[in-house]
Amino acid sequence: MKTLIIGMDGAQVDSFKRGWTPYLASLIDKGEQLLLREDLISRGWSEIVTGQHGITTGALYDRAVLNGTHDWTIKFKLDDIPGLGREVKPLWQVLNERGYRVGIMNVPTAYPAPAVEGFFVSGGGGGGPVSQDAVIEQCYPEEILETLHDIGYIVDERLVSLLAEKKLYQPQRFFARLEKKNEKRTQAFIELAKRYEIDFGFIVYKSSSNLAEFLLLPEWERYLRGESSVDLEFIEAVKHYYQNFDEQIKQLVKSFPGAEVVLVSDHGMAKRRWLVNANTFLHERGFQKSAVSSRNIYDFVKHFKRWIPFSLRRALRNNSKIKTVYESMTTFDTKASLAFSMVIGDWAHGIYINDRERFGGPVKECDIQTLKEEIVRAFNTYPASVKHGFSAYAKPNVKTMASQYFPDVILDLPDGYMTSNEFQEFVTKYEIPKGPLGISSVTKGKLLCGKAHQPLAVNTNNVWKVRPTTETKDLRLIYDHILAVFK
Predict the structure, then answer these.
(1) How far is 145 from 151, CA to CA, in rounded Å?
(2) pLDDT tens string for the chain (487 positions)?
(3) Contact indicator for 253, 484 with CB cutoff of 8 Å
(4) In which region does residue 168 sit, left (phi positive, over 0), alpha (psi from -120 to 50) or beta (all else)?
């Protein structure tokens, strides 16, 4: 194998500087880190796979359905990209066209598995099942399904499957399951990579590192401050998980001596410190009209959610109608407002012009550009924006089929600031609950962490073929580097 990319969802350099992962720390120390910055609107894994930003591909963490209403969704798969395989070519396609064999395992949103020279195992989600056992649609060639079943390969585990289904509330059992998932993935990749004699490998440890960081960071901060009632059992379980993960990476790298090894993640993780309500800004500056009934419904649903048992939330999420209504809740007058921000999840969210064609709003197409510029000026001079170091910029005038999904105004907030409609103030300090924290914080509906801008991007061989520029400083550079290696 010439190059191996090891992906770790939600990981960052600091994740491997706690003394728990000596092998990974040694790889990072001897390698070179690319200082990248994700806008947290465009999906990081999709940037790596396609070399294109979400404004071109439509690969966003959440986006409009674009049916003339304010219906919203977090669903996305690579097959949704306009011109996929023609104008936009995934890494594996380009490498195959250049005569190289590939081995791809668990790359998010790549379902069903495409035909490649080599092998391909789709990840969970992106239209595929988030389950323990692989299905035939996730495998190319189909014959590898038997190998995955023999090994005991686990497609994915999420919080819902670990807690609501398996009832793994005890830290050791919770993280032991993630350890097993990583072990089986490592074993399966090594076996298939050698069988198919691949030139390029890409394996992603989805969910595991993301869950570990998501759950650990608040409690780890309390531990470092020397606070009382720290959940030491929980921290010890995370430590054991990382020690086990370190051994998996060591086994993986040692199995392919001489290969260039690149460590990447789709984003970092940060503790939730401030909440930012962009709709409050829009209302106060006259770009949005309030709707008391919508706000009351929103507040009621958010409050009621905290009292729903975690297992019941699983059932509700599986109901497509309920899921659509929940993801599409608004707090503003959808017919009279000039602009709005939709908020789902723990990522960043921009501002959309409420135009007629996309959302059935009052803004004419000819007025969109002027309104974008007005909102950017208003936001950048807004006293609270200046105080907290916020900035905004207008969406570039990219004429692609997918650009209509992208926010018209991009908000650039420091790590730890997360867009939310939870409070009606523009900026609200978020108080981390008293400990101990850990797994129980999730079951109580508390979102203590979210995505951070800087992903992990380390070439352990210290030979990057590309460098960040003013125009390109995100994960698209990983794609560019691979194509420069495999000319």
Answers:
(1) 10
(2) 999 999 999 999 999 999 999 999 999 999 999 999 999 999 999 999 999 999 999 999 999 999 999 999 999 999 999 999 999 999 999 999 999 999 999 999 999 999 999 999 998 766 666 778 899 999 999 999 999 999 999 998 888 788 878 888 899 999 999 999 999 999 999 999 999 999 999 999 988 888 899 999 999 998 999 988 899 999 999 999 999 999 999 999 999 999 999 999 999 999 999 999 999 999 999 999 988 777 776 676 665 565 566 555 555 556 666 656 666 788 899 999 999 999 987 788 999 999 999 999 999 999 999 999 999 999 999 999 999 999 999 999 888 889 999 999 999 999 999 999 989 999 999 988 777 777 866 656 667 899 999 999 999 998 999 999 988 899 999 999 999 999 9
(3) no
(4) beta
Q: For the whole prediction, is pTM greater than 0.90?
A: yes
d(CA 8, CA 264): 6
DSSP state of 380: H
For 362, the 3-state DSSP assignment is coil
Q: How many CB atoms lie within 10 A of CB 99?
A: 9
Coil/strand/helix, residue 201: strand
Closest residue by Cα to residue 274 from 428, 162, 391? 428
Token pair listed for 235: 């921290």
- Structural contact between residues 435 and 227, judged by C-beta atoms closer than 8 angstroms: yes
DSSP string spanning 95-154?
Answer: HHHTT--EEEE--TT--SPPP-SEEEEPPSBTTB--SSS--GGGEESTTHHHHHHHHT--
User: What does the angle CA 343 – CA 345 – CA 346 come to, to the nearest 5 degrees?
Assistant: 110
Q: Rounded to the nearest 5°, which phi and psi values hold at 22?
A: -60, -35
The H or E element containing residue 30 is helix 22-30
Give the helix/strand (H/E) hosting 459. Answer: strand 457-459
Size of the chain in residues: 487
Looking only at the bridges linking them, the beta strands covering 102-105 and 200-205 are: parallel
